[in-house]
Amino acid sequence: MSETTFVKAINDTLARMMREDDRVIVLGEDVAEGGPYLATEGLAEEFGTTRVRGTPISEGAVCGVAIGAAQAGLRPVVEIMFIDFLTLALDQLVNQAAKAHFMSGGQLTVPLVLRTQGGSGQRSGAQHSQSLEAWVTHIPGLKVVMPSSAADAAGLLRSAIADPNPVVFVENKSLYFRRENVPDPPEPVEIGRAHTVRSGHDITIVATSRLLGDAVEVADRLASEGIEADVIDPRTLVPLDVETIAASVRRTGRAVVAHEAVTTGGFGAEIAAQVQDHAFDCLEAPIQRVGAPFTPVPVSPPLEDAYRPGVEEIYAAARVCIEWDQPAARAAVNMGPRYSSDGAVQYGLSQHPSKIVFVQSNVPGTGYIAAGPASLAKAANVPITELTENVPINDASSVALDLVNKAGSNGWVVLNFTPPEALVILQAAQKLGLEDRVKGWGCSTPCNTDFLSKALGPKWNHKLFVNAELTSADDHNGPEMQLYKAILAKYGQSVAGGVGSFSQMGYLLAKFSVNALQSVKPPYTIKNVNAAFKAIKDQKNEMQCQPWVYGDYPLHIPNNADFTTTPDNGKMVTAQQCFNVSSADPQIAQYRKVAGTAPSTNPPTS
Amino acid sequence: MPSWTDVEQFLITGLSLGGVYALSGVGMVVLYRATGVLNLAFGAVGAMGALVAWQAINHWGFSGSGGFWLAYLVAILFAGGVTLLYGMVFGPALAGRDPLVKATATLGLTLILLGVMDLLWPSSGGASRALTVPTDNNTFQIGESSVTYTNVIALVLGLVITIVTAAFLRFTKLGTAMRAMANDREITATLGVPVRRVEAAAWFGCGVLSGVAGVLLADLVALDATSLTFLVISTLAATLIGRLRSILITFIAAIVIGVVTAEVTPIQKISNYRDMTPFVLAAIALLVLNRRRVISVGRQGV
User: Fold this and answer.
1) d(Cα B292, Cα B79) in Å, to the nearest integer?
2) Is the peptide bond before A239 cis (omega within 30 degrees of 0)?
3) Most B CBs within 10 Å: which of A394, A406, A456, as the mutation test of the B interface?
4) Furthest-apart CA pair in chain A: how many Å?
5) What is the bridge-based pairing of β-strands A24-28 and A75-80?
6) pTM score, two decimals?
């Protein structure tokens, strides 16, 4: 073994083959001077410029000359400096080299090796960084090899030069100067034989060229998480060693295919198709492809780095594959503030306003939340205007004015904001005397907090109606509420939100979680902890309208019966006892359909 | 389209906000003219001043009408003091540096103050505070809109400070010294002007104005460290339109920014983009002003 680099291994193999066989010649742009990456350095000095021939910049002509020389008995190795310019040689390669043997009835052979290199990462721009190997894999008559290590490069180059047919030899410039140990002399590597670089039984990662190293790194990371990956380097794309890859997938049931080329139309698609042809019954998850986005390689360094697929992309794809059939490992989806907004709008609708104005923060996901109130308003045949406001709000007076103007004197304004933003709007409305300019105001559950009621003056008494997912902390004082307040006072002094829906919900969920975990017999595993959480049901508490359940449902809205509270001289008091949030919201209807309407501990009043 | 009533209502909120922007803008221009420093910490200092006032009212027993005003005075003096301290400690070291370096250095103060505010008055978990000026409760009607005296104070104060500052710079010795220093600090120093003292006055004045703006904005906008700190950006647009020189143009630009931002609010299609108003106006103004400058330079060339 001796230490060398990828490009030196190529250089040594060329020299060795030229020494062994006089028919081997090298031609291409600048090859006599060593080429841009020194792959042919020193060859002209040793073998002369007749055998190491620099050519004009005309890829088509160079390729044509090489084909003629090959047919005449030589073994030319052509260098196309960048794979991007293979386009100029494609006519000769595709229509002449690939076809000659077939069209001459076997009389002609073209023992030609076309060496070229691609790949991004060198800040070389869109025309010197592409990975175009998939183009030539589509041509019957061409073999395509793509080594990922110096040892394979040397071994495959030997086999390629010895091959009687045209071989396209695709290198990656990012690999050129990595140091590694190679056998001396290099051992020939059979064309069409994949290499299993690392063995595992949970997932197969097939990676070509530069991405092989990244795949091995991902396998190490997965191993630290208890997942063992098979990592396979096909080494030759045509002919592809399908059997090795398919055998691995039959064992693991999951596959990720990674290459540097753009995913669309990339060779990964062919590998994926072949795998599903040969191992469909064994697949436990869709095959994931990793490649570059469908865009030219950017010239901006940060964009190029973002463009290049690598460790993170392969890891993410592997996780998708592994977690595909393990929904228990994923959290069930909550409705966020949608059902509380529903509740606030529902109370407003019960007061028969002429219009609802629903406003919330201008953040992603607002469309989903607004769909709930919109469906309730539609069912009640009351017009609704949905608005969003950028946060933090810098011109609350204008916002408050706008809301009131849009709602009209018989309208109802419903806010869905965090307490500080809601407070800012309500206070601005108060300063401008707007609180009485509409029929009423509503707010989703974040407003159900003690400091909001303290900060709002008596003008808001029974004017603002807040949907409360849990009982109002001010006019309930059962043992559970006392415990929650005591815990908050002792341990939650930095919980700046104070007493209110948010910290109440935190208290309750912590309690349910503790109950669930106490039911698990150690050691704790993902499986038994998940099972314990799924089994949570019938958890009753004086703060809730209905028992809490997780279960194994596709969506998660265990708390769908709420209260309405209103400020009353610095306190939040109950304005409406438990009521079921309306099934006019299709999400609520869907949840009740699968989970049923839980029996209420505090019977709904409407 | 919005009706005249809408326009009138939003004009009032816009004018009062514009007035505070103007107040802030004038403070920033004065400091820039005297020291060459674009004070990006203006908002943060004002925010901290407002929080100090909140602390005084809610926890130090500054209650009652007199207590309120005393708390605001403390806030304003605090803001003046912090700015003066910064100017005295870092001003001399930064005096010879590039304007960009000077401006960036004030970002350091901004970040420190933001950190301190978050430590002393945490806003995590949805905590909220409010600072209300007593004049909020006194209102009168213009058409269908009620106007608080705070709105009036904001606008009038903006106007008064602009006029007083312009007069101060033009007619007083200290003002003349400030203008001279803006022109050439070294020559002014060799002529016997006490540079350090003049700079101190500029820093203190700027700080006092940031305190006043902080208290008013805490009432008109929100008592939130982050919001108030970054409101300086709207002000910055006004000062840029005034090219960091003209107090009058800064005042007008600030009022226009406040009014346009408010008037856009009811127009639902573009309402969410109204935060861009200061920059759009600044970009247009700079393009137009630059064009005139290019033309005049061209004529000189001919």
Assistant:
1) 39
2) yes
3) A394
4) 102
5) parallel
6) 0.63
